[in-house]
Amino acid sequence: MRFAVIAAGEGSRLAAEGIAEPKPLVRVGGEALIDRLLRVFVANGASEIDVIVRSRANRVAPHLDGLVREGFLGHAKLRYMEKTPPSSMHSFYELSRWFDDEPFVLTTVDTVFREDEFALYVKRFEQAVASGLDGLMGVTRFVDDESPLYVSTDARTGLIDGFFDVSDERAKRAPFVSGGIYGLTYPALATLQRCIDGGQSRMRNFQRQLIEDGLRLAPFEFSKVLDVDHASDIGKAEALCSGSRSAGGGFERI
């Protein structure tokens, strides 16, 4: 399976709070964020991992080169590009140039989750694709985001039927927020192209467009998903990684 990582952000909030390392190299529990994702992806059957990073000056690209030389990724193929897109959605678009018609799982580099739940997520994603769904989106009931994207589901099918900002009245009835873990199939790339052509720049607008385009997306519930945006998030992420393991997560109907 193909996995992809958006690691081209500035990490300006972390830098302003005294974190000298570029975000992909920030350590959680003694492990760089990018290393943790790559390790987890390899453990879950990655055949290829595609990464977008900023410039070589920030040390992330040389770090990835070192991982390849050390054999960190085993038999998985690692490709990375160095660009500075204006948004996460544009980073996704750049990465998508490498995608073929196989399903893929995409995250941002600072996404932290329980590894056992992610392993179950990958299995459920494979099942979802086999059943004809277009994607499996990581969601959680745990809200720890400055600007959460709420996710609602259809009571009959269990599939996602809307993505709402907190200012939208419909957000009050939505049980989940987006966890920033996207398992998608090839049709999603046509939606991505439409968003880029239309001048969109936010991943949440891409997700809304997926629904408008009629793609069938199921939710997979994680107990918690954290983004490492602030220095204080590092301790939270370490607690999540080292906490008791749970088998939780899943979607109820396909």
Describe this structure in words.
The longest helix has 16 residues, at 115-130. Mean pLDDT is 92; it is low at 244-254. Strands 1, 4, 5, 6, 8, 9, 10, 11 and 12 form a nine-stranded mixed β-sheet that branches. The protein has a two-stranded antiparallel sheet with strand order 2-3. It has a two-stranded antiparallel sheet with strand order 7-13. It contains eight helices and 13 strands. 33% of the residues lie in helices and 25% in strands. By secondary structure, it is α/β, with parallel strands linked by helices. The chain has a single domain, classed as Spore Coat Polysaccharide Biosynthesis Protein SpsA, Chain A (Alpha-Beta Complex), CATH 3.90.550.10. It starts with a strand and ends in a 12-residue tail after the last helix. It is globular. Strand 4, helix 3 and strand 5 form a beta-alpha-beta unit.
